[in-house]
Model the fold of this input.
Amino acid sequence: MRPRRVFRWGTVAGLLIFGLLLAGSSFPPIGTSPGNVQVRSAGDPEVESQPGANSKQEILLDDGFDGTTLEASTWNTCHWWQDRGCTIATNNELEWYLPQQVKVFDGTLHMAAERSEISASNGSDYPFASGMVTTGPPAHDMPSKLEFTYGKVEVRFQIPSGRGLWPAIWLLPASEDSRPEIDMLEVTGDATGRLMMHLHPKSRSEPSIGKDYVLPEGGSLAGSWHTISLDWSPNKLTYLLDGKQVWQVVGEQVPDEPMYLVMNLAVGGDYPGSPDESTTFPAVFKIDRVRILSNS
Done:
């Protein structure tokens, strides 16, 4: 069973709202196909051929991080419920996201996690500071900086390794709800040869689905550059790693509403477990390029 990302604000109101939104969620084992959703894996003879470039696609974002500062018109450094930082407390994560943990240099976006002692605005203490970015709303009831419905997302990345680290690349709805959610990439730092992908449908009566893809020949996503891509069209999600199709979801549960991009380096919590003495800090999740194309 995979835990999913759920949210709470640093306020009582936020806790009450998201508690109501998330009531009744349930999840099947990874690789299952609930309802009328078809799930296809790499090597399945019925998997459609890799989607190519569409001449009608419009470039919404092409960021190579060539400067020395993050483009503020495109990126935030916290979730929309931020209050002098943020986290996803319902996952019992150990990091507090702070803007200073995000830096741009050498043509690369760096999101760094390091040991710290933080007394956060939500009343909790956190032993790690870390970095994240999002193209979503900068605050409650504000529009997303970049949202889209259907298209292709490509991210060239390099993840760190180490127990308790949890880099992720994912999409959330511009409505500020927690579902639907499309997880392009999740990796735990103690299993860097395993790419985890998920779809959490909008309807909370529908279980989530997911796929684990294990790199061949003992390969690892840490220590070298890789590209994760998501091709999102009506009733279909196609996932590609380094140009190879590794998963496809077909069905009415595929989201059909505006969504935005999130990239973060979480630390600890219910999913990856806590770091131990073997985990090296600072740990850095690097992004070399982000491209978002919209189907016009």
Remarks:
- Confidence is low (pLDDT under 50) at residues 1-37, 45-53.
- The two ends are 37 Å apart (CA to CA).
- DSSP finds one helix and 17 strands in the chain.
- The longest strand covers residues 283-295.
